[in-house]
Amino acid sequence: MTIAIRHATPNDVSVILSLIRDLATYEREPDAVVATEADLLRDGFGPSPAFEVLLAERDGEAIGFAFYFFTYSTWRGRQCLYLEDIFVRPADRGYGAGLALMRALAQKALERGCARFVWQVLDWNEPAIAFYEKLGASIQREWLTVRMEGEALARLARG
């Protein structure tokens, strides 16, 4: 069984959305995904892509993905690679797909001269935390995620 990592193309949008839905189910929010294939096609494969996707394939079948984009560190004065989501289907774990995706992302970050490779992990996801720490990542527990959406976002914008 061979694991291959490749960049997603517009033809992969349906499999990307399927993997996103599988991730949402794994993260205990199966009904949270409202993104559509049209959204992913427009925002990831148009003239100014907002994100990039790597697919992990085992024997030619997509089993996982990494969804990422680039941010900027004001303190470091350099770009950073931000990993929005990484996921390997549970039945396909243990073959090295997660490690292969993380390596490909680290290579991408170095190629682009990034100061950091950053992502988040749910506090209950102990297997992922252990995996990331084994890779050499440090969990920044003092930083809290702040999110504003929906009516709160609209209310702030209105003043």
Give an account of the 3D structure.
- By secondary structure, the protein is α+β, with helices and mostly antiparallel strands.
- It has one domain: 3-Layer(aba) Sandwich (Aminopeptidase).
- The chain is built from five helices and five strands.
- A five-stranded mixed sheet has the order 1-2-3-4-5, sandwiched between helices.
- Helix 1 crosses helix 2.
- The mean pLDDT is 96.
Show the helix and strand layout.
Elements: E1 3-7, H1 13-26, H2 37-45, E2 52-58, E3 61-73, E4 78-88, H3 97-111, E5 116-119, H4 126-135, H5 150-158
Give a quick summary of the entry:
This protein has helices spanning 13-26, 37-45, 97-111, 126-135, 150-158, and strands at 3-7, 52-58, 61-73, 78-88, 116-119.
Fraction of residues in H or I helices: 25-40%
Gross CATH architecture: 3-Layer(aba) Sandwich
Tell me, what's the shape? Answer: globular
Number of helices: 5
Q: What number of structural domains do the residues give?
A: 1
Tell me the total number of β-strands: 5
From the alpha carbons, calculate the radius of gyration and give it in angstroms.
16 Å
